[in-house]
Amino acid sequence: MIVDCHVNVYEDEQILPLFTASTPKARPGEFTLKANPDVVYEAMRDVDKAIVFSLRYKDSIGIDGDDEVTARAVAKYPDKLIGFAAVDPRRPDYMDLLVHAIEDLKLKGVKFGPIYNGVSLLDPRLEPVYEYLQRHNLPLTMHMGTTYGRNAPINYGRPLDVDTIAMRYPDLKMVMAHMGHPWYEECIVVARKQPNVYCEVSALYYRPWQFYNILICAQEYLITERDKIFWGTDFPFTQVGESIEGLRRINDQVEGTRLPRVAGETIERIIHSNPLEHWWHGGYPG
Questions:
Q1: Domain-wise residue ranges, the chain
Q2: What's the predicted TM-score (pTM) here?
Q3: What is d(CA 224, CA 179) in angstroms, rounded to the nearest whole number?
């Protein structure tokens, strides 16, 4: 089984000029900006399931998504897609929107980007979010790490804040996206320490030297043996095939050297990791 745990979905009209202008800085190479439900479904043809969410990052990178587009995508392709809500704690109605997304739209988790919304994980506005998710057995996946967006405060993406929240809410399942790059060591030690915290490798393969070091570090801290690391693309920034190939070829760059190798077992365990077994207490509720 292959599950893409990190897929963006939004309608074409939700792409703002800021996104078009700033995304060339996101990564080397060309990639599509389109991620409407039909485009996403086609892109996910080679995975069994995909977790999708629509970003509310209008002022930071120029995507003005909403939970309605996520719900429409899931309703159209229920065999493939699992929907998460997006939360922006700056909005006065953020808890009303969250309750609507979960209880009316039937979304199954939450995505939050502290750097993109300019709100630290330690901000008191997030306390009702944590309490609601813990009470309803819903996972929280978070953008952890840096960004190309000029308007986003990078310091809010440091993984050490996750350790604090995990201690306060021990039954809240938390997922650190992008291995917290470039602070991947912080991400790894927090995931090792906290039983309710996981991480994932989306949008990393195209920086192969950093990705290699992340995986070696994860092996050395033994979290690769404990179902702590999950696989994803961050579509549309990367595609399924290239993300899998990039992971499977991670050792190419150290051939002919005495540097350590990422174990084949580590690689395949990540590719075939299954968040549906781990991100909800008792497994995915369906």
A1: 3-277
A2: 0.96
A3: 13
